[in-house]
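Here is one chain, start to finish.
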Amino acid sequence: MNTSLNNLSPVWTHLSQAVIVRGEGPYLYTNTGQRLLDFTCGIGVTNTGHCHPRVVEAIQQQAQNLIFGQMNCVISEPVLKLTDALRPILPQNLDSFFFSNSGAEAVEGAIKLAKAVTGRTNIIAFQGGFHGRTALTMALTGSKTVYRAGFQPLPSGIFFAPFPYAYYYGWDEKTTVAFCLRELQTMLKSQTAPEETAAIIIEPILGEGGYVPAPTAFLKGLRDICDQHGIMLIFDEIQSGFGRTGTWWAHQPSGVTPDIMTLAKGIASGMPLSAIVAPRAHMNKWVPGSHGGTYGGGNAIVMAAAIATIGAIQDDHLIDNAQEMGTYLQTRLRDLQKRFDEIGDIRGKGLMIATELGAPGHPNAERAKAIGSACEKAGLLLLTCGTYGNVIRWIPPLIITKDHIDEALDTFTNAIESTR
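Its structure:
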């Protein structure tokens, strides 16, 4: 182990102890010359792959002209160009932006905005959801106790409803959706009254909670409940956005439009940026100066990287590739499922795919950990997730080919066999 690691806080967990010196496309290269196939994407960040030439060039050019223009002082040209690039790929009514640095900041801001719009105090979140590690976003997170343990009391006025995770319940999708919507209605009668509920926040696909897509019927049910009671519907698309699921946004196929949406991760190919997006009428309810930040919207280099990222996704047809490669990956994984019955479920959209180890009610975290560790030693980086840690998630960059998938699956198959 590199002794310099002793100077880093141990609060970070590390999938690998490898020291990376270079990245290109789907690969990372270590200081010892090893090549790693990166199917973590920095937890869904490097959607365009490592060091996409278009993004690198945009960063280099912008660094020569302007690095920083603080939003309270001036307005940099790149921030305006970024809003122009984002508008055509977002729902038509989401036309106003607030930029910040991280997903957690975006979620905190979205909650503040919902409270400002409605004048209400309470928030409904979902079991299995992950929204960050700041005080408020910890309070909104229900995926694992490790994110909250020892830090209570957390901000109050937050209530958790069940997420329609059909495989976990052991039910069909229709039964699961009906149960979860019924429980949500009961919550509005028993725990947080509609007139005190500002927002319902949900990941259209659970991230840390297990890569579980929310069924269309459930999202439509949420929209109906929110419309009935004047509650803001917030979609957290931080991990699932920017082409990850084979559409720009995971919620798109449902036809449901949120009142507020949060973006981050894949927005700028690894540069720190996030956004809150909402109708201008909602943003107008925010008192000027009641929300802000030093760096949000001010870093011109980050803005340039985001503009280049959007351009690369469009011009390189990466959303189409995510659909095609996602279908291929799921098909190959289902073939493996026939060979290895310990693979209980395969689910997901585009290139946001889960392989769950164990049967409903019997999660097998030990196998997921053993398989993931064997893959890492063999040069394939895969992350686990899920409340029990028994889900292996597949989040490769959207540039991958069938050859990359075949390479990864050969390693994955060997890992299963060698650890049995």
